[in-house]
Design a protein that fits this description.
Structural class: mainly alpha
Number of helices: 5
Distance between the termini: 108 Å
Helix content: 25-40%
Largest sheet: 2 strands, antiparallel
Number of strands: 6
Shape: flat
């Protein structure tokens, strides 16, 4: 039995059909293609990654010599009246030349060394300190125990940057005072009197005590959402009152803008 599958016979398959040719759309070409290509060629650098396209072969006459790549020291020179000349070592003596022999001196080196030792000033030992139980010694001068800085000329004097900072703070305070005076003359600001300041302070403290009394009356267990929100609201209000009280107690002079 053949295993080949054929489509079912139909009368419509007997009528030849015209082949439908699918026409492709023309490929999109950007109008800036030539400009982009030109900019790309301008920004492209040659021999950047792969090296030159062609490398010159070295000449066979300039072959590598032995010790040619070793660094060479410059020849020592000495100054003369005519300029600089190269210092040369003395020549090698010939076999006919004889060295000087039989030269004696009357200097007594034993007495000379003894006299130099007697007349020499003994060296003072460097001050040291031991900082471990095994006796490791360190120089005392660099330890910070020697009062070297009190012997400086500018010891005890105020540094220049602190004087400059004081001048800047003083100048800023004067400018602020002048600005406040001008605004007070114009009627835009007024200074809070001491009685008003004390009355405001007493009112803030009274409000804080009332909130604190309400806070102490809360239940210990906050098992519901309204209890939690009320506790958080009282804590925020008390913190704000504490900040206001601290600000008014800290500053004795308070200015208020006239709206």
């Amino acid at each position: 039995m053949s295993t080949t599958m054929y489509p079912p016979e139909s009368i419509y398959n007997l009528i030849p059909r015209e082949e439908v040719k699918i026409e492709k759309q023309p490929r999109y070409m950007s109008m800036f293609r030539s400009q982009v290509k030109q900019e790309r060629m301008q920004n492209k650098t040659t021999n950047k990654t792969m090296g030159p396209a062609k490398v010159d072969v070295p000449s066979p006459e300039k072959y590598l010599l032995k010790h040619s790549k070793e660094p060479k020291l410059p020849e020592t020179q000495r100054l003369t009246k005519r300029g600089t000349t190269t210092v040369r070592k003395p020549r090698v003596p010939t076999k006919s030349e004889q060295p000087l022999m039989g030269i004696h001196t009357k200097k007594d080196f034993i007495k000379t060394n003894a006299n130099e030792s007697i007349m020499s000033v003994p060296r003072k030992p460097q001050p040291i300190y031991a900082d471990t139980k095994s006796g490791d010694k360190q120089l005392l001068e660099n330890s910070g125990l020697v009062p070297k800085y009190i012997k400086k000329k500018d010891y005890g004097e105020t540094p220049e940057y602190l004087l400059q900072r004081r001048e800047e703070v003083k100048r800023a305070q004067e400018e602020y005072d002048n600005y406040v005076k001008e605004r007070m003359k114009q009627g835009a600001m007024k200074q809070l009197s001491d009685d008003e300041r004390q009355s405001i302070l007493r009112g803030l403290k009274k409000n804080w005590e009332e909130l604190h009394h309400q806070y102490q009356g809360l239940s210990v267990v906050t098992d519901t959402t309204p209890k939690k929100y009320r506790k958080e609201r009282l804590e925020l209000e008390m913190k704000q009152l504490e900040r206001d009280i601290d600000m008014i107690e800290r500053y004795k002079t308070i200015y208020i803008a006239n709206n």
